Amino acid sequence: MAREDSSPPSHLPCCATKRAVRFGDEPREGAAVVYEIDFLPVESESGAGSKSGDAISAQLTLNDGRTVVLVIDSGFGATGEQMVEHIRTHYRTDRVDIMISTHPDADHLNGLKHIVETMEVGELLIHRPRQHNRNVADFSNLEAVDNLIATAEKRRVTISEPFTKSLSHVGSFLKQASAAAR
Q: Lesser CB count within 10 Å: N end or C end of the chain?
């Protein structure tokens, strides 16, 4: 049975959660022992105080001492810059192991490109609408999806599609770590 100890992180007291998770006397292999999840504010284009989108980062420290950095969405372009600074300052790394694009809206996807351009990224999980749909006219922000994928390919980032059987070892690791933590 897992026990959780919570403490507010000093760097984002209102926007983040930090927890230590321990599994009895024998931690499960690959299970996260400590994890920190940070939610960066994403303002809409209309300005401050108008919440829009998501920018989530997490640092997982596994029971074998390995650390994994995860990014889920990263708001608009400026939020991507803030995310890079946040990861470098608070996680003390220039590497993102797993980056996930949940969907192509500008307030979720556009900041990811800056992260790929300025940090080492192990794997990008993103849907590729052009490969699965004949009519992509209804997809918003498709040019930004194409630019992100092109940038990731240029930087030799592993690109996988979520919800398929073609996840690389990093995506598979994420699924295994999630299952082990249950």
A: N
Q: What is the pLDDT of residue 100?
A: 95
CA pair distance 155, 136, nearest whole angstrom: 26
Residues of the chain with pLDDT under 70: 1-32, 44-52, 163-182
In angstroms, rounded to a whole number, what is the distance separating the alpha carbons of residues 67 and 35? 9
Closest CA to 36 of 66, 59, 62: 59
One-letter identity of residue 35? Y
Sheet architecture: strand order including 16-23: 2-6, 16-23, 32-39, 55-62, 67-74, 95-100, 120-125, 158-160
Identify the residue whose tokens are 């790929």: 116
Which domains does the chain possess?
Answer: 38-180 (3.60.15.10)
Q: Which stretches within 87-155 are classed as H helix?
A: 106-118, 129-132, 142-154
Q: What is the pLDDT of residue 10?
A: 46
Question: What backbone phi and psi angles, to 5 degrees, belong to 83?
Answer: -65, -45
Do residues 96 and 72 make contact, with C-beta atoms less than 8 angstroms apart?
no
Beta strands in the chain (DSSP E): 2-6, 16-23, 32-39, 55-62, 67-74, 95-100, 120-125, 158-160
Per residue in 20-62, pLDDT (tens digit) is 444 334 555 555 578 899 998 887 666 665 666 789 999 998 8
